[in-house]
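New to this. Please check this record:
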Amino acid sequence: MAGAVLAGQEEPGRRQVEQLVASQPQIDGAALAKSSVVVQGLSAYEYILYDAKTDLADDAQKARYCPLLVAIGDRQKALAEEILASWNSTDGMLAQMTKFPNQRYADSHEAIADLLRVQVTALDTLKKKLGTPMGRQTKGIAQPFQADAWRSQSSLQSLEASLAAARTVWVGVDNKGLRGLLPSEQKPLADKIDAAYAASLKLFASNQRTLNELLADDAGRQQLNDIYDSLNVVHRLHEGELAKALGIQLGFNANDGD
């Protein structure tokens, strides 16, 4: 079963990486930008670093893969710089989120609604990223190779980092996050959401096992269920009570219909 999942999910990415290093052995970031997105990102990076068949201590393999590793790093750096420049530009997202009206938002309420929709979708995505390898969409049959970063066994650390990032959007800097938009009479709700984030992050932090290890026994699967349930609490609070308190109609999100 696991082999079938691995073949179905991972072989196209593996194949594209291998084809690329064979056809462009000295590829750089600029050339990589013209290649498939599959080989431009961290999944390709992880494949090279962690696949069981790769040994970068071997000089021949090092010469084969290292130019692509460097190119991926350069490409990701360039993309990050483009995003930052776009964010900070005169008509960029930062300006659109702070000065109204603008070409994107008629008023601040529209901007807040958009931000909350993105946050709700992100939290829902975290649930799916955990629920899928747990087998929640496959009648309880675990799908460990459907997890992000399964080769490096850092799936749960990645989810934890994403949840911490979502909490930063909630809290903000200098209390200028979604939390700061709630009126004083909504302090009980703010405290409830604070507690939900804290509880979920505590579950992640207290776990010392990998996703595969947790999937292997009943106690581990219960831990994963507890983590999933804690993510669900955070997600539902944003989707329900927070949206209502801010007077926002969310509608459908990008994951609806998956």
